[in-house]
Amino acid sequence: MSINRLQAHWGFTRMPFGRSLAPSMLHRHDGHAEAVARIGWCIDQHALGVITGEVGAGKTVAVRAATAALETSRHVVIYLPNPSVGVRGMLHHLVSALGQVPSFYTATLVPQAAAALAAEHAERGRTPIVILDEAHLLDNTQLEAIRMLTNHDMDSGAPFAALLVGQPTLRHRLRLGVLAALDQRISVRYALASMTATDTADYITHHAKIAGRSDTLFSHDAITLIHNASRGYPARSTTSPTTHSPQHSPATAPSSTKRPPESPSPKPAPTDRHHHHTEHPGTKPTKAPPAGHGRGLSAPRSSAT
Predict the structure, then answer these.
(1) pLDDT higher than threshold 80 for residue 96
(2) Could you give the CA distance from residue 305 to residue 291 in angstroms, rounded to a whole number?
(3) Which of 4, 110, 136, 195 has the fewest CB atoms within 10 Å, i.e. the most exposed one?
(4) Torsion angles phi and psi, residue 52, rounded to 5
């Protein structure tokens, strides 16, 4: 079935639960709003922040919503989605994003990245915002390189804001003694929790309304099932309505949708409750043996005198 036929079947004007939504179209529950507020404070204070959460909790969505509200004339967002590039790849990306040609040698690339961040703030009047996604995959050398970039003007401040976004293992790693210097520089910490059952219902209703269905599409039992299966995480909730469509879940289907005819239930097999003898056609019925016939059943004959 094509996407157009699927949308027409359920009355959607677009596919629901899409990832290409504008920031103004995102669903804002309490945890999302708190994460956006803390990210905004971290950017305003040129601080180092850590946003953690389980897979599908909406960490990147919160970062995207927070950065979308910034003035582009006063902020420049540098997003690093892949931490496997190493220290040199990370610094190379920073220098290139700020419009400079990265140095070939790592020894000169490190001070070049720090100078480029400082010049962007001092000369152009824009605050660089360095966002490192999947930060739980960063090694200790990369994390120390981020800390060294914050050493500016004899540690009196930083010309940029940095956000480490990752899974809960990042929060545990930062407590290690080898990263104690970086841990004490972190000003904002927030662990994005899962949604409540009410938030999940509002989340599904919100996205269904964006897709063109303002009526009740999923029943209360279906939403409860989705919430329990996804454990309240938005990204997992978006896959549940697709996998368990209203046709296969206890949901309210559209009035124009016809249910498929039910197949007749098979007839129960005959049971031998009263032990009736079943005769096959073409066979002769067997006669019961006469009374007294059988071994050891006949009476002994009396001898003639």
Answers:
(1) yes
(2) 28
(3) 4
(4) -120, 160
Side-chain-side CA neighbours of 201 within 13 Å: the count stands at 12
Can you tell me which residue has the tokens 């899409």?
Answer: 18
**How far is it, in rounded angstroms, from Cα 297 to Cα 214?**
87
pTM: 0.70
Judged on CB neighbours under 10 Å (0-12, 13-18, 19+), 86 is: middle
Whether the pLDDT of residue 277 is over 50: the answer is no
Q: Which strands form 127-132's sheet, in the order they lie side by side? A: 75-80, 127-132, 161-166, 48-53, 186-192
- Location of structure tokens 């994005």: 192
* CB-based contact 149:114 (threshold 8 Å): yes
Distance of CA 52 to the CA centre of its chain: 14
The yes-or-no verdict on residue 251 having pLDDT over 50 is: no
Q: In 3D, which of 203, 172, 162 has the Cα closest to residue 58?
A: 203
Q: 4-8, 203-207, 246-250, 279-283: which has the highest mean pLDDT?
A: 203-207
The two three-digit tokens of residue 228, written as one number: 């329990």
Name the nearest CA neighbour of 117 among 86, 145, 81. 145
Cα–Cα distance between 107 and 139 in angstroms, integer? 19
Residue 154 has what DSSP assignment? Answer: T
Planar angle of CA 90, 96, 97, nearest 5 degrees: 90
Beta-carbon count within 10 A of 225 CB: 17
Q: Name the residue among 172, 168, 187, 217 with its Cα closest to residue 17.
A: 217
Closest CA to 135 of 111, 162, 112, 98: 162
